[in-house]
Design a protein that fits this description.
Two copies of one chain form a homodimer.
Chain A: E1 4-8, H1 16-29, E2 34-38, H2 44-48, H3 60-64, H4 70-73, E3 75-76, E4 82-85, H5 91-98, H6 107-113, E5 122-126, H7 133-141, E6 144-150, H8 153-157, H9 159-171, E7 178-185, H10 192-205, H11 218-222, H12 230-233, H13 238-255
Parallel strand pairs in A: 1-5, 1-6, 2-4, 2-5, 6-7
Antiparallel strand pairs in A: 3-4
Helix pairs in contact in A: 1-13, 6-7
The structure holds adenosine-5'-triphosphate (2 copies) and magnesium ion (2 copies).
């Protein structure tokens, strides 16, 4: 199937979707075959890539409930080499429906094991803002976790809870889960708080923190309204360039 | 007990906690007796008011599971007239623990009905970023829902899902749930996208949208690191003044 990276953080609005879409698109532009899985009932990765949730026949929900294979639910996006497993509205009900099921945390992992299609170079999972059964499914199935971190007080505070969860998953459901790294998002170096948080996080987590950071850049928040990754909206923007840097750094970190 | 307002939006990072804390504190400064209930396992309203989650004996989790009354779990904050029902880490487990319980959606409502302490002029519930059992508990127990809306594309897109949920709650669990209004947060009138979203939302929702808006203001994101509402961090800031305006507008809307 290919190496799987969960993009996760239970804190809301910290750039999980923006990173999933734009990192996936940047790697696809570097000739990698990439699959993005939208695991958030909000379906932001789906709409951010111009796919209409209402038109989707089967998606992540159907795969988790065992009603569809991954290869039947995947759709091609307008970007070469970039594929999407879309989220539909019924994903909001999956949390409650899975709770009494056997092996509820392994549904995603089992679906990956059953995959029969062409392999991918990278698979990303855009997680919802909660340490819920959906996110636990992603962390159980993933080889790597990438934590997107907005340089703000509440986001930094939530890191402890997230690191505890990662440790617990490693001890039980997925001993092979690696820390891909912490990516700082919406960085504003003119702002003392943002700079302070960046310094604190680098002091504490060292080389686990990506060198590349994503600056606050309005082009990033405009792109989803056109249904395209930022590089197709404004390639020269700081946002697009930042995600190309992040993609290069990921490839470099994986090759060491 | 008093009028209850749930501050909700399943979209993450749209200012639910920032609004809960600063609107509650502004009303408390206007001599209203206010209770803030932290219903988010992240516990941001708790830490944002300087209360240490580790030191808390019983909190929202214990109230939902029926192990504590509200009056036994409430703590005083450093602000006059402002009380807090704190969140503890075990609240993260409440979602799964409640799913098989009888009347799982009515836990909060039942706890309000059983309240024996002194009445409040206003009660706010800071909701987590999900349309989960916790949020449904808040919407079932509330008299009003205030939707905080960041002026961004994904946030606007999520409104449809949220309005559907409110409609369903009104038809079933809580016919008395009123729309308090939509409060625009992190507004940046120099930014075309922000201005466009504001215009679209006002055109569609009309007078349901608060006149007062909350501008993006760094003092608002600094205040939680000092454990105080923004008016105690920088009263003259645009953020503090904005929430005093919001408090006045809420009082005005309720009196009509
Ligand atoms: N670097 C950036 N510069 C400017 N805006 C950004 C940036 N990154 C994200 N945004 C915007 O901030 C908002 C939050 O980002 P996003 O939705 O990607 O976060 P998320 O963690 O996926 O949120 P959720 O927790 O709701 O899933 C979005 O409106 C997005 O367009
Ligand atoms: N008007 C504002 N100006 C500047 N920063 C703000 C403003 N409102 C909120 N923030 C900051 O933006 C981030 C998100 O806000 P907040 O945590 O209140 O949103 P939330 O909806 O409660 O998030 P979650 O979905 O995780 O519960 C926080 O770091 C907060 O300090
Ligand atoms: Mg997202
Ligand atoms: Mg919050």
């Amino acid at each position: 199937f290919g190496p799987v990276t969960a993009v996760a953080n239970q804190k809301g609005g910290v750039g999980k979707t923006t990173t999933s879409i734009n990192l996936a698109a940047s790697l696809a532009a570097l000739d990698q075959r990439v699959l993005l899985i939208d695991l958030d009932p909000q379906g932001n990765s789906t709409s951010g890539l111009g796919v209409d949730q209402q038109q989707v026949e089967s998606g992540t929900y159907d795969v988790l409930l065992g009603d569809s294979s991954i290869e039947d639910a995947i759709v091609k996006t307008e970007c070469d080499n970039l594929y999407l497993l879309p989220a539909t509205m019924d994903l909001a009900g999956a949390e409650i429906e899975l709770v009494n099921e056997q092996g509820r945390e392994q549904r995603m992992k089992n679906a990956f094991a059953a995959y029969q299609g062409e392999a991918f170079d990278h698979i990303f999972i855009d997680c919802p803002p909660a340490l819920s059964i959906l996110t636990v499914n992603a962390l159980t199935a993933a080889d790597y976790i990438m934590v997107t971190l907005q340089t703000e007080f509440y986001a930094m505070e939530g890191l402890t809870q997230l690191m505890d969860t990662i440790r617990r998953i490693r001890q039980g459901l997925n001993p092979a889960l690696n820390m891909e790294g912490i990516l700082l998002t919406m960085v504003d170096r003119r702002n003392n708080l943002s700079t302070q948080v960046e310094q604190d996080v680098r002091a504490y987590f060292g080389s686990q923190v990506y060198e590349s950071v994503v600056p606050r850049n309005v082009r990033l928040s405009e792109a989803p309204s056109f249904g395209v990754p930022v590089m197709y909206h404004d390639l020269k923007s700081k946002g697009a360039q930042a995600y190309l840097d992040v993609a290069q750094e990921l490839l470099h970190r994986r090759s060491i």
